[in-house]
Design brief:
It is a single chain. It is globular, with a radius of gyration of 17 Å. The model has no long low-confidence stretch (mean pLDDT about 95). It is built from 6 helices and 9 strands. The chain has a 5-stranded parallel beta sheet, sandwiched between helices. Helices cover about 30% and strands about 20% of the residues. The protein has about 200 residues and is α/β, with parallel strands linked by helices. Helix 1 crosses helix 2.
């Protein structure tokens, strides 16, 4: 409300403001709600760094649902392991990764819908309804924010799997806030700083 016009993130030539992320996340949340996503449901994301990741991430959280980011190098059984472990109901996947995800949905019975970010392929299959992320963004509605407790899960991040199958680590909402606050305090960040992130959003 106070700094809505300020730039939040820049992805190559795609610049988004705080208010744009909030507005578009609301439309995505409404679209996901139309697919049946409710509080506590898990929604997986397999996407590179782009503005749609932010819209999906915060749209999921607005519903009180739980974000499950998937490493963009995950392949084969590793993908179905994450989907089955979390019982994800929806997968949001960038077009360049569709060919890695869809063939494994037969081993992931919990997945009900697949939302594709980018170009739709006529060869895409997987036995699930396919949706265009652009349609979620264009949803005329905007979901309000579901109230959550600080200890409730916000995300499930998976370990690297060096000692066995990757394990899901449940992170509550207050983890995100505490991490951001402590990082800003330790590094001495101010409103005037611009940060370059070399990390993937997943």
């Amino acid at each position: 409300a106070q700094f809505g016009d300020r730039v939040l993130a820049v992805f190559d030539d795609d610049t988004v403001s705080y208010s744009q992320v909030a507005e578009r996340a609301g439309h995505v949340a409404a679209g996901l709600r139309g697919l049946g996503v409710t509080q506590g449901d898990r929604v997986a994301i397999m996407m590179g760094n782009r503005s749609e990741f932010l819209y999906a991430w915060f749209g999921i959280l607005k519903l009180g649902a739980i974000e499950v980011p998937i490493h963009d190098a995950a392949r084969g059984p590793g993908i179905s392991h994450i989907l089955n472990t979390t019982e994800a109901r929806v997968v949001i996947v960038e077009d360049v990764f569709v060919g890695h995800v869809l063939p494994w949905l037969g081993d992931s019975p919990s997945v009900e819908h697949v939302v594709i970010v980018g170009e739709q392929s006529t060869d895409a299959n997987g036995g699930r309804p396919l949706h265009d992320f652009a349609d979620l963004l264009a949803n005329p509605g905007s979901a309000g924010t579901v109230e959550v407790e600080p200890h409730q899960p916000a995300s499930i991040l998976f370990t690297g799997g060096t000692t066995g199958p990757p394990k899901g680590v449940v992170l509550p909402h207050n983890h995100n806030i505490n991490l951001a606050t402590s990082t800003a305090e330790i590094a001495g960040y101010t409103e005037g700083d611009v940060l370059l992130s070399v990390f993937p959003l997943f």
